[in-house]
Amino acid sequence: HERHWMPACAGMTSRKMTSAIHPTALSGDGVRLEPLSLSHVAGLVEASADGDLGALNYTNTPLANAEAVSTYVRAALDGQAAGTMLPFAVLRDDGTVLGSTRYYDIDLSVPTLAIGYTWYRASAQRTHVNTACKRLLLGHAFDALGMRTVYLHTSHHNLRSQAAIERLGAHRDG
Q1: Pairing mode of beta strands 97-107, 112-120
Q2: What's the DSSP call for residue 112?
Q3: Strand 112-120 to strand 26-28: parallel, antiparallel, or no bridges (unpaired)?
Q4: What is residue 121's predicted lDDT score, i.e. its pLDDT?
Q5: Are 63 and 53 in contact (CB under 8 A)?
Q6: Partners of 101 in the beta sheet?
Q7: Are strands 112-120 and 149-155 parallel, antiparallel or unpaired?
Q8: Which of 89, 102, 104 has its CA nearest to residue 31?
Q9: Distance (Å, rounded) from C-alpha 127 to C-alpha 173?
Q10: CA–CA distance, 150 with 138 (Å, rounded to integer)
Q11: pLDDT averaged per 10 residues, the chain (length 174)
Protein backbone atom coordinates (compact mmCIF):
# COMPACT_ATOMS: atom_id res chain seq x y z
CA HIS A 1 0.00 0.00 0.00
CA GLU A 2 1.39 3.33 -1.02
CA ARG A 3 0.32 6.89 -0.36
CA HIS A 4 0.53 9.19 -3.35
CA TRP A 5 1.32 12.86 -2.91
CA MET A 6 1.49 15.85 -5.20
CA PRO A 7 3.36 19.04 -4.34
CA ALA A 8 1.21 22.13 -3.88
CA CYS A 9 2.81 23.58 -7.03
CA ALA A 10 1.89 20.56 -9.18
CA GLY A 11 -0.03 21.36 -12.31
CA MET A 12 1.53 24.79 -12.72
CA THR A 13 2.50 25.76 -16.21
CA SER A 14 6.05 24.63 -16.80
CA ARG A 15 8.66 27.02 -18.12
CA LYS A 16 9.90 24.56 -20.70
CA MET A 17 9.60 20.94 -21.66
CA THR A 18 12.75 18.94 -22.08
CA SER A 19 13.04 16.21 -24.71
CA ALA A 20 15.31 14.12 -22.50
CA ILE A 21 16.46 13.98 -18.93
CA HIS A 22 20.19 13.89 -18.38
CA PRO A 23 22.18 13.19 -15.22
CA THR A 24 23.12 16.38 -13.42
CA ALA A 25 24.42 17.36 -10.01
CA LEU A 26 22.28 19.49 -7.71
CA SER A 27 23.43 21.16 -4.51
CA GLY A 28 22.20 23.44 -1.78
CA ASP A 29 21.66 23.73 1.96
CA GLY A 30 24.61 21.51 2.81
CA VAL A 31 23.69 18.58 0.56
CA ARG A 32 24.79 17.49 -2.87
CA LEU A 33 22.92 15.17 -5.22
CA GLU A 34 25.31 13.48 -7.62
CA PRO A 35 24.32 11.24 -10.51
CA LEU A 36 24.46 7.74 -9.01
CA SER A 37 27.34 5.57 -10.20
CA LEU A 38 29.22 2.46 -9.15
CA SER A 39 31.81 4.77 -7.58
CA HIS A 40 29.24 5.41 -4.81
CA VAL A 41 29.00 1.73 -3.78
CA ALA A 42 31.45 1.88 -0.85
CA GLY A 43 29.82 5.02 0.54
CA LEU A 44 26.35 3.52 0.19
CA VAL A 45 27.46 0.35 1.99
CA GLU A 46 28.76 2.52 4.83
CA ALA A 47 25.55 4.58 4.86
CA SER A 48 23.33 1.50 4.96
CA ALA A 49 25.32 0.17 7.93
CA ASP A 50 24.42 3.31 9.93
CA GLY A 51 21.12 2.08 11.37
CA ASP A 52 19.09 -1.01 10.59
CA LEU A 53 17.31 0.05 7.41
CA GLY A 54 16.42 -3.53 6.54
CA ALA A 55 14.39 -3.87 9.73
CA LEU A 56 11.91 -1.27 8.53
CA ASN A 57 8.98 -3.03 6.87
CA TYR A 58 8.48 -0.19 4.37
CA THR A 59 11.99 0.24 3.02
CA ASN A 60 13.08 -1.39 -0.21
CA THR A 61 16.79 -1.07 0.51
CA PRO A 62 18.26 -4.40 1.65
CA LEU A 63 21.80 -3.12 1.21
CA ALA A 64 23.80 -5.33 3.54
CA ASN A 65 27.00 -5.61 1.51
CA ALA A 66 28.86 -4.38 -1.57
CA GLU A 67 27.29 -7.03 -3.80
CA ALA A 68 23.76 -6.01 -2.81
CA VAL A 69 24.56 -2.31 -3.23
CA SER A 70 26.18 -2.95 -6.63
CA THR A 71 23.03 -4.78 -7.74
CA TYR A 72 20.89 -1.89 -6.45
CA VAL A 73 23.00 0.70 -8.30
CA ARG A 74 23.06 -1.34 -11.53
CA ALA A 75 19.25 -1.67 -11.46
CA ALA A 76 18.94 2.09 -11.01
CA LEU A 77 21.36 2.70 -13.88
CA ASP A 78 19.39 0.27 -16.07
CA GLY A 79 16.31 2.40 -15.37
CA GLN A 80 18.30 5.49 -16.29
CA ALA A 81 19.41 3.88 -19.56
CA ALA A 82 15.77 3.06 -20.32
CA GLY A 83 14.81 6.70 -19.71
CA THR A 84 12.46 5.92 -16.82
CA MET A 85 14.73 6.81 -13.89
CA LEU A 86 17.34 9.33 -12.87
CA PRO A 87 19.07 8.13 -9.67
CA PHE A 88 21.21 10.21 -7.31
CA ALA A 89 23.62 9.60 -4.48
CA VAL A 90 22.98 11.99 -1.59
CA LEU A 91 26.11 13.46 -0.01
CA ARG A 92 26.97 16.05 2.58
CA ASP A 93 29.10 18.91 1.32
CA ASP A 94 32.11 17.18 2.92
CA GLY A 95 31.61 14.17 0.60
CA THR A 96 30.07 11.77 3.13
CA VAL A 97 27.49 9.58 1.40
CA LEU A 98 24.17 9.87 3.20
CA GLY A 99 21.95 7.69 1.00
CA SER A 100 20.17 7.69 -2.30
CA THR A 101 17.06 9.05 -4.03
CA ARG A 102 15.78 9.19 -7.59
CA TYR A 103 13.31 10.37 -10.15
CA TYR A 104 11.35 7.44 -11.53
CA ASP A 105 8.24 6.70 -13.59
CA ILE A 106 9.45 9.45 -15.91
CA ASP A 107 6.94 10.07 -18.68
CA LEU A 108 7.92 12.96 -20.92
CA SER A 109 4.70 12.70 -22.93
CA VAL A 110 2.65 13.91 -19.94
CA PRO A 111 5.23 15.38 -18.62
CA THR A 112 5.42 13.80 -15.16
CA LEU A 113 7.73 11.91 -12.85
CA ALA A 114 7.87 10.58 -9.31
CA ILE A 115 10.43 11.11 -6.56
CA GLY A 116 11.23 8.14 -4.38
CA TYR A 117 13.48 5.18 -3.65
CA THR A 118 14.75 7.55 -0.98
CA TRP A 119 16.73 6.32 2.00
CA TYR A 120 19.28 7.88 4.30
CA ARG A 121 21.73 6.65 6.90
CA ALA A 122 20.16 6.76 10.37
CA SER A 123 22.31 9.72 11.48
CA ALA A 124 20.90 11.83 8.60
CA GLN A 125 17.26 10.97 9.31
CA ARG A 126 15.18 13.63 11.07
CA THR A 127 17.61 16.32 9.95
CA HIS A 128 17.36 18.97 7.22
CA VAL A 129 18.70 16.49 4.63
CA ASN A 130 15.39 15.14 3.31
CA THR A 131 13.77 18.57 3.04
CA ALA A 132 16.84 19.98 1.28
CA CYS A 133 16.93 17.07 -1.18
CA LYS A 134 13.21 17.22 -1.95
CA ARG A 135 13.38 20.97 -2.56
CA LEU A 136 16.33 20.52 -4.93
CA LEU A 137 14.54 17.71 -6.77
CA LEU A 138 11.21 19.54 -6.98
CA GLY A 139 12.81 22.75 -8.17
CA HIS A 140 14.82 20.94 -10.81
CA ALA A 141 11.81 18.91 -11.97
CA PHE A 142 9.56 21.92 -12.44
CA ASP A 143 12.03 24.66 -13.39
CA ALA A 144 14.69 22.85 -15.41
CA LEU A 145 12.89 19.76 -16.70
CA GLY A 146 9.48 21.32 -17.32
CA MET A 147 7.44 18.73 -15.46
CA ARG A 148 3.76 19.49 -14.94
CA THR A 149 3.25 16.96 -12.17
CA VAL A 150 5.62 15.42 -9.65
CA TYR A 151 4.51 12.60 -7.39
CA LEU A 152 6.04 11.47 -4.12
CA HIS A 153 5.14 7.94 -3.04
CA THR A 154 5.54 6.49 0.42
CA SER A 155 4.31 3.47 2.31
CA HIS A 156 1.14 3.88 4.33
CA HIS A 157 3.21 2.53 7.25
CA ASN A 158 5.85 5.26 6.97
CA LEU A 159 4.27 7.99 9.06
CA ARG A 160 7.52 9.97 9.39
CA SER A 161 7.84 10.18 5.63
CA GLN A 162 4.21 11.20 5.25
CA ALA A 163 4.68 14.02 7.78
CA ALA A 164 7.85 15.19 6.00
CA ILE A 165 6.04 15.25 2.65
CA GLU A 166 3.17 17.26 4.13
CA ARG A 167 5.69 19.79 5.49
CA LEU A 168 6.81 20.36 1.89
CA GLY A 169 3.31 21.55 1.05
CA ALA A 170 2.24 18.43 -0.84
CA HIS A 171 -1.26 17.02 -0.68
CA ARG A 172 -2.58 13.47 -0.91
CA ASP A 173 -3.73 12.37 -4.30
CA GLY A 174 -5.65 9.12 -4.34
Answers
A1: antiparallel
A2: E
A3: unpaired
A4: 93
A5: yes
A6: 88
A7: parallel
A8: 89
A9: 26
A10: 7
A11: 48 49 95 98 92 54 80 96 97 96 96 94 91 95 95 81 78 72
